[in-house]
Amino acid sequence: MSVAGTSTGPRMRAAFIALPLLVLATVVNWRLGLVLAVWVLGWWVNARLARLDTRAARLAVPMLFGVTLLILWEMTVRLFGVPGVILPAPSAIGAAFVANGPTLWGDFVQTVVKGALSGYVIGCVAAFAFALLVDRFDFLKRGLLPVGNFMAALPIVGTAPILVMWFGFDWESKAAVVVVMIFFVVLVNTVAGLADTQPMQRDLMRTYGASYWQSLLKLRLPSAMPFVFNGLKIATTLALVGAIVAEFFGSPVQGVGFRISVSVGQLALDMVWAEIVVAALAGSAFYGIIAAIENRVTFWHPSNRG
Amino acid sequence: MSETTAPIAGHSAGIGRSARISRQVARMRHTGLPVLTIVTALLAIWYLACVPMNAAQSVLSAARADVVVRPESPRDRREMSGLALAVLNPGVSITRAFTQDRPRLPAPHQVATELWATTAMVAPTSNKSLIYHAWVTFSATLTGFVIGTVLGILLAVGIVHSRVMDRSILPWAIVSQTVPIIAIAPMIIVVLYSIGVQGLLPKAIISAYLSFFPVVVGMVKGLRSPDAMQLDLLRTYAASGSKTFFKLRLPASTPYLFASLKIGIAASLVGAIVGELPTGAVAGLGARLLAGSYYGQTVQIWSALFAAAILAALAVGVIGVIERAALNRMGLRR
User: Fold this and answer.
1) B residues 221..240 contacting A (CB < 8 A)
2) Chain A neighbours among B 259-318 (CB < 8 Å)?
3) Span of A95-104, A175-184, B23-32 with lowest mean pLDDT
4) Is A174 within 8 Å of A252 (Cβ atoms)?
5) Which one of A39, A55, A82 terminates a domain?
6) How distant is the Cα of B14 from the closest Cα of chain A, in angstroms?
7) pLDDT computed for residue B18 by the predictor
8) A283 closest CB neighbour out of B180, B273, B293
9) A130 and A74 in one domain?
């Protein structure tokens, strides 16, 4: 796929540029030289690994890149004495993560499980049911699709203060924000998916004398699944964003967004980063679960074959 | 679908109107009427919802004005839902639902009046003007969007041409899409503030950050969209790497670029708005939202929300127009 140059020319040239620069940096400031040396070393190992085409190498390269970045981050903070109120070192973040385990777990439950997940389920079910209804009536479809597309592009997160006012500070208002944020995304994708059958396939169902529900269940819903899952995957990220941002407008004394805004105020940045790690892990896991379900459901789709 | 049949078979064909106009009329009939119906229905639902939503306050103000309301004791009323109050006191709830000063749900015309009053009736430079606040937010959005897009395109070019970058950076760029990166926004603002950077730049950095990854992922997909046949053809021409890039890969990536730009500008706007929340910024649409929610000024919240929506729609629309023109010009439009 990629068009990487495999000749030795460019790499030699890169080495000729990199080495003198390294020496120069070391002379000017040995700390800078050390940091750059680690970077060059990591990059060099990666360049070697990237030429192997095994499964392990494919996994090792991004891992190594991530680890190199973490090491560089730690080194930079320590060597240059960056204050913790500007950028805490990864080790400090890890320590905060371990030390505040119960707090972080409580925040996770409050924001992700109660706020984002319940809103996600309600929003997806509602959007899916509505999509089936819209699909039944062509007039509704023609009218709602442009409106839905328009709504999906809007900064809906701005409804957060209104919904917090209506539903109170607890998780109900966060779930409401999540519902509003993901509704149109799932709706638009599902409606587009239900329209994605070929005339030949529909004709075949007609020659079988299939009823509306039979052709929906056996043909149109299965073939809509790649679109539906596309919407569901986008919605996972939106759900977390909605639940976190809604907490900036008021929340009980718990929750990822609440903790972030409070810890930022106290300049406890290691705690902020620990919450960001929680949010990142939750987001990736959420997405990964939906993607895994998608693989099971749409095993027949060309993108999953071979 | 109707476009293919309209010019010849349409009702107005051959009776003095040009084919183009008849096509437009047909398209209007195809989507215009349904969209209009839906929007009207939404507005009607909105007006209807105002009655129970604002019922508590309507009944309270009526009771203060010595109008007889059911149930008479305020304590009984407090425990009832808005819907029940509205059913018991239909006249009072309906007449007083749309004129409150701080309604729970402002009526559409109240929001429209506020929008008009804060855009057209005040000077755009005063801090009461929504245009001023929208500009504060939009300037940060645009700065960040341009930075994020340029960096994103550069990184995508690097990823497509270097196997190391492809293997080590692209997986992280894709994973980062699944992470609610907006959580970093408050920290960026405060950290930059503590080292003396404030104003437009911190918000722009958040915007750049949010528009960066969609552009990277989209552009990588676009730059790789030419198939083997096309690449082979250029190889038979003995085209150099840069020739292949400028004559094949870059043009082929344009549709993908515009698709990501639309996502990117919407994300940038959200970033700039959220960037205004944590520090108690005094200007900008996010600041208006926050101030409105502090003081219970619901009409102000709704008008800021609509201003943000209009801004997003305009920005995405402008990119759409440029997209159509560019793709038409390049003969890429399907």
Assistant:
1) 224
2) 262, 266, 269-270, 273-274, 277-278, 285, 289-290, 292-293, 296, 298, 301-302, 304-305, 308-309, 312-313, 316
3) B23-32
4) no
5) A82
6) 27
7) 57
8) B180
9) no
What is the identity of the amino acid at A85? V
Same structural domain, A198 and A65: no
Nearest CA in chain B to A57: B167
CA separation for the pair A264, B271 (Å, rounded): 17
Class of domain B130-330: mainly alpha
How far apart (Å, rounded) are the C-alpha atoms in residues A199 and A188? 21
pLDDT of A23 higher than 80: no
* Percentage above 90 pLDDT, chain B: 5
pLDDT of amino acid A7: 45
Q: For residue range A118-138, list pLDDT tens digits in order.
A: 999 999 999 999 888 888 887
3-state secondary structure B34-71: HHHHHHHHHHHHHHHHHHHHCHHHHHHHHHHCCCCCCC
Mean pLDDT of B80-102: 72
* Interface pTM, i.e. ipTM: 0.74
Range of the domain at A286: 97-304
If we measure between CA atoms, which residue out of A46, A73, A81 comes closest to residue A61?
A46
CB-based contact A4 B163, cutoff 8 Å: yes
Residue from the list A62, A140, A264 with its beta carbon closest to the beta carbon of B171 = A62
Residue B2 near chain A (CB below 8 Å): no
Q: CA end-to-end span of chain A, whole Å?
A: 16
- The closest alpha carbon to A105, from B101, A114, B284, A41, belongs to A114
Half-sphere exposure of A272 toward its Cβ, with a 13 Å CA cutoff? 27
Taking the whole predicted model, whether its pTM rises above 0.90 is answered as: no
pLDDT at residue B200 greater than cutoff 50: yes
Tell me the one-letter amino acid at B18: S
Q: List the one residue out of A167, A151, A123, A147 whose CA is nearest residue B306.
A: A151
